[in-house]
Structures are given as structure tokens and as C-alpha cells.
Design a protein that fits this description.
Mean pLDDT: 94
Largest sheet: 4 strands, antiparallel
Structural class: alpha+beta
Shape: elongated
CATH class of the largest domain: Mainly Beta
Radius of gyration: 19 Å
Number of helices: 7
Helix content: 25-40%
Strand order of the largest sheet: 1-8-3-6
CATH topology of the largest domain: Jelly Rolls
Number of strands: 12
Low-confidence stretches: none
DNA sequence: CCATTAATATATA
DNA sequence: TATATATTAATGG
């Protein structure tokens, strides 16, 4: 079996997809939101699982007038508001026009009783998220900010890069700001890193893709930026 | 809205 | 104390 975490969780918007739940959307409460709409306000009691049917939703933690992006939920991704412990204020926002379905715990139990596959996928999604946040925690402890950004590019290259003449192309729509939010590196620092990578002709980022001209050099840079 | 740059302050090895 | 990173603010695409 391939490594699920690597396949799904470098950018936290592609956790293990729970496709089987699609069939049961009629059992829950379906709502549509427009881009920028809040799906669940900070402080609001959320006792449902929010299942993303289409579009894209983001989950933030709020604290001390600051907000921290935890993850994005795209199609087939559930956002748990029913099973886990509540950790402070959670803000769920629609990033695009989105359709979501609210499931209660009881509804999900009913589904799981009759559908092992849905159950398994749901668990896999949970495990995938758990793995991602362990990964992030490790990155924070073991690597410098610059190394974290470089490592993210490197990981993306290995998992999603397409090779042509030793040049890797990653088709991914990713802003520097998003990379900043995911890696915990300040957006100005991220900008400087990409500026340097471009100047050195190692990596070039456009709005829709990342091109790696010199993978060995990228790897060298990661090592040079490791903590000693 | 997103990216870049400079000046300055903090943090870390 | 030297280097890396964050912060803030100003500016341009």
C-alpha cells in the first residue's frame, strides 16, 4: 500500500476523500454558501460534521485576535464538529461558492452501520488529518523556516511533479500567502525565498505551477538550511 | 487582492 | 555577536 499521507497531505486541502458519503447527502441538511460566507462562526456551537459536496471551505482557529489556518476542505472532505474535542474558537469559511452537507453524529452512525466503505473512508480521512498535523509539528521542531518552505516544494515535486528533461513541473494553484500559512513562515520571508530561488534558477513559481529547474540544488539548499 | 522591497526589530545558534 | 526571521510600512502589478 502506498503512503497515504504523502499522497494526500502535503498541502492540507486534499485529505483522504470520503467519496462514499456522497450517496447519503439526502439524509443530511444541504446548504449552499457564496464565496466569503461564514459557515460556522467562532463561538457557535457546532455539533455536526460538515461534508463538502462541492467548492472549497477553510477552517481557522481564532485566538488573541489572530487567526491560524488549519486546513482547507475541498470536495469529499468532512470537517468534524461532532466527534472531536472543541479547541477554542473555530471559524469555518466558504472560500468559493460551495455546497456542504451537515450530518449529525446519529446520521453518520446510521450510515456507517450499513456501509463499511463509508466508515473506512471516514476513518482514513481522520487518520490522514492526524498524520498531517503530526507532520507539521515535526517540521516545526526539526527545521528552520527556510528549510520548511524548501522541503514543502521538494515534497510537492516528488509526489506531484511531472518530469520533462530533468525539469519538474508541479501543477498547483498556490499563493505565497498560502504557503506562508501552511508552513508557518512569514509571507515576506516566503517571498524572499522564492525571489532567491528564481535568481539562482533553481525554482520558478507562477500562479498556477511551480517549476523546478535544479532538484539536486534544491536538495542541497535544504541541507544547508537545516538546524545544526 | 497578491507580490515585492526596504528599513528596522527580534530571535536564535 | 553574527545570522536568520519577523514585523511594518510603502509601493507596484
Amino acid at each position: 500500500m502506498t503512503d497515504i499521507n504523502r499522497d494526500y497531505c502535503i498541502v492540507p486541502d486534499n485529505f483522504y476523500p470520503v467519496k462514499s458519503l456522497q450517496k447519503y447527502v439526502h439524509m443530511g441538511v444541504v446548504r449552499k454558501y457564496r464565496k466569503g460566507d461564514t459557515i460556522s462562526f467562532p463561538g457557535e456551537v457546532l455539533d455536526r460534521v460538515i461534508y463538502v459536496v462541492s467548492g472549497k471551505v477553510s477552517v481557522y482557529f481564532l485566538e488573541d485576535n489572530k487567526q491560524k489556518l488549519m486546513y482547507y476542505a475541498c470536495r469529499y472532505c468532512p470537517i468534524d464538529g461532532a466527534f472531536g474535542f472543541k479547541i477554542g474558537l473555530i471559524h469555518v469559511v466558504s472560500e468559493e461558492n460551495s455546497t456542504v452537507c451537515f450530518f449529525s453524529k446519529e446520521q453518520l452512525f446510521e450510515i456507517f452501520r450499513q456501509d463499511d466503505e463509508a466508515h473506512l473512508e471516514f476513518l482514513s480521512n481522520f487518520a490522514c488529518k492526524c498524520g498531517f498535523f503530526m507532520y507539521v509539528s515535526k517540521e516545526m521542531d526539526l527545521y528552520t523556516p527556510t528549510a520548511r518552505v524548501l522541503r514543502m516544494i521538494y515534497e510537492l515535486c516528488l509526489t506531484k511533479g511531472k518530469v520533462v528533461d530533468n525539469i519538474y513541473e508541479i501543477d498547483i494553484k498556490l499563493t505565497q500567502k498560502t504557503i506562508s500559512e501552511i508552513t508557518g513562515v512569514h509571507f515576506v520571508s516566503v517571498c524572499r525565498i522564492f525571489g532567491w530561488l528564481k535568481k539562482e534558477k533553481i525554482v520558478h513559481k507562477t500562479p498556477n505551477k511551480i517549476i523546478i529547474y535544479d532538484l539536486p540544488r534544491l536538495k542541497d539548499m535544504i541541507n544547508l538550511n537545516n538546524k545544526h
